[in-house]
Amino acid sequence: QKEVEQNSGPLSVPEGAIASLNCTYSDRGSQSFFWYRQYSGKSPELIMFIYSNGDKEDGRFTAQLNKASQYVSLLIRDSQPSDSATYLCAVSPYNTDKLIFGTGTRLQVFP
Amino acid sequence: DAMVIQNPRYQVTQFGKPVTLSCSQTLNHNVMYWYQQKSSQAPKLLFHYYDKDFNNEADTPDNFQSRRPNTSFCFLDIRSPGLGDAAMYLCATSRHRERDYTFGSGTRLTVV
Questions:
Q1: pLDDT at position B2, please?
Q2: B84: left (phi over 0), alpha (psi -120 to 50) or beta
Q3: Cα A29 to Cα A26: distance, rounded to the nearest angstrom
Q4: Rounded CA gap, B19 and B15, in Å?
Q5: S-S: B34 plus which of A9, B7, B46, B58, CB 3.0-4.6 Å?
Q6: Closest chain B C-alpha to A8 CA, distance in angstroms
Q7: What is the pLDDT of residues A21-70, one digit of tens each?
Q8: Can you tell me the distance from the alpha carbon of A9 to that of B94, in angstroms, rounded to the nearest whole number?
Q9: B45–A contact, CB cutoff 8 A
Q10: Residues of chain B contacting residue A45, judged by C-beta atoms under 8 Å apart
């Protein structure tokens, strides 16, 4: 079992729709969860992080964490073509500095 | 601006010829990381330093080595690059246990 799993996609949504990206993780002790956006050939850029169960909103983005289900998601409201990228879920396991990435979900937002 | 700088952005090396990638930071972060990312794959952690304490991932090939001569600099040495080592190599930093990760722009390595 991979430590961090994501559906590779592509996930295609029309402009203005809500994009929903999902991630599961295997280490139940993990405490910190991150969503990164990565454009082709570029390095990952942080969208947001979440540490506590529930929802965290930042502009058009909402991260949701459910530790009991070992599940974290990212919602993108009012999707724009410029949101088209690969979205990487990353987890920092308990008592470590390490950041473990999933393979990412490719999002395509079409006009 | 405080940042993480990787040089070069693009590196072409010959099969079997040793190559070194460099990373520097002005953030004064005490943890530095090297990741390998192949096309359409997850960034894979190779190793990380907490100050001078080196932490190697169990599945990192012996062909990959690292040096951290001081807080600001970290190097990735590939002793005998193979075609399978072609990838984007990402350097990142953070403060210990703060999880304030900052990534460099990456070095794209091509092996010919």
A1: 65
A2: alpha
A3: 9
A4: 10
A5: B46
A6: 9
A7: 999 999 998 989 999 999 999 999 999 999 999 999 999 999 999 999 99
A8: 30
A9: yes
A10: 103
